[in-house]
Amino acid sequence: MTDLFTEPELLFQHNPEQPFQLPPGLARLRAERPLAPMRFPDGHEGWLATGYDEARTVLGHAAFSNRYELIHIPLPGFSGEMPPAPTGDFLGLDAPEHTRFRRLLAGKFTVRRMRVLTEQVERFTADRLAALAALPRPADLMAAYAQPIPALVICELLGVPATDREWFRQAVNGMLAREGTSADDIMTNWTALNDYLRDLVRAKRAEPTDDVLSELTTSDLTEDELTGVGVFLLGAGLHTTATVLGLSTLALLMNPGQLATLRENPAGAIEELLRYTGIGGATVRVARTDVEIGGELVKAGQTVAISPIAANRDPRRFGDGDALDLGRDASGHLSFAHGVHQCLGQHLARVELRIALPALFERFPSLALAVPVHEVPLRTTANMYELERLPLTWQD
Ligand code: HEM
């Protein structure tokens, strides 16, 4: 029985030769003690959930808070305290403050809006495929395809006018930490986007259009809150979807035998790709009171780090969970989390993936990686994988 797990860095590691392999240390821990005490890099003695049932129970349990200022982060080298959630970032709030934002936003993802967005994603995907085909090879799928599609969706949601979209896309791109980007560059882009969104909120108040931001201007949200929600949606919806689109492409290129199933049953296939590519790193919660989970006593004030990738591969829930099997029933995976903070944009993300992924393989049947797998620049940041580039090639 593991007494105290002292390798939180495993949550952020992957094997470059086999990027989708769960670090063996996490698989061992999951088998021995699926909710195990863990020493965090800042010395905090909290817990690590690697088992599916334990992770799901924590995420769905009312005893746990997600207030950032109460949480310890298992990131190597992280020793400071987290500041409270910035205005509009309701992921870092608990009920009732969280509920106020969640209700308002959930009501905006209507069936009609989803239908309109679906048509726009279809049209835009066709445009991006044509643009991709015209590029010299190897071409970077992230810059040419995987990032622009979710960026378009965010622009539509927020009602960013067509004339501003190229600027907006570049500013969003510049906000991502990657090789050659300095902290100053990121800050400059963040401030510019923040200012832009504030102006946009004012414009929507004066002259509403058909988008979520305009509709929210009639709610009781203040200008600061609306601007913050815009910034938060950008952070929550863009990079995540782009990464899953890129990782799913990589996973399929490494498992070409599964492509037929993607064509036959895209909805089921996408669910399995979400499970398998998961999100790396950790999702964290802090116990507000003493609470017993799976026979372990988590004390008030202790942080539980959840490894979604370990939970998503738990053999007790998903038999042979380390294998990609597009024919399996992968529903119930934790890639969109679970409970009150379960991803608000999950249906939208599924629409994007179901359209963009099969279309890519249909347009380029000979699609192939242009570099060896270990050269694909993949790293795990605070709470997810980050795929900086995905160099691909194909035959005419
Ligand atoms: C929350 C994953 C796409 C909006 C979350 C959470 C996860 C997640 C894991 C919960 C985090 C936690 O509990 O600590 C993903 C993945 C996506 C994706 C893997 C793409 C494949 C989107 C999109 C949008 C979106 C497209 C909207 C445009 C949100 C919001 C929350 C959230 C607003 C906060 C919900 C709340 O606190 O009530 N997402 N997401 N996400 N996501 Fe997503």
TrEMBL record:
Keywords: Heme, Iron, Metal-binding, Monooxygenase, Oxidoreductase. It comes from the Bacteria. GO terms for molecular function: heme binding; iron ion binding; monooxygenase activity; oxidoreductase activity, acting on paired donors, with incorporation or reduction of molecular oxygen. InterPro entries: Cyt_P450, Cyt_P450_B, Cyt_P450_sf. The keyword Heme applies. Involved in the coupling of aromatic side chains of the heptapeptide of vancomycin. Belongs to the cytochrome P450 family. This is Cytochrome. It comes from Amycolatopsis albispora.
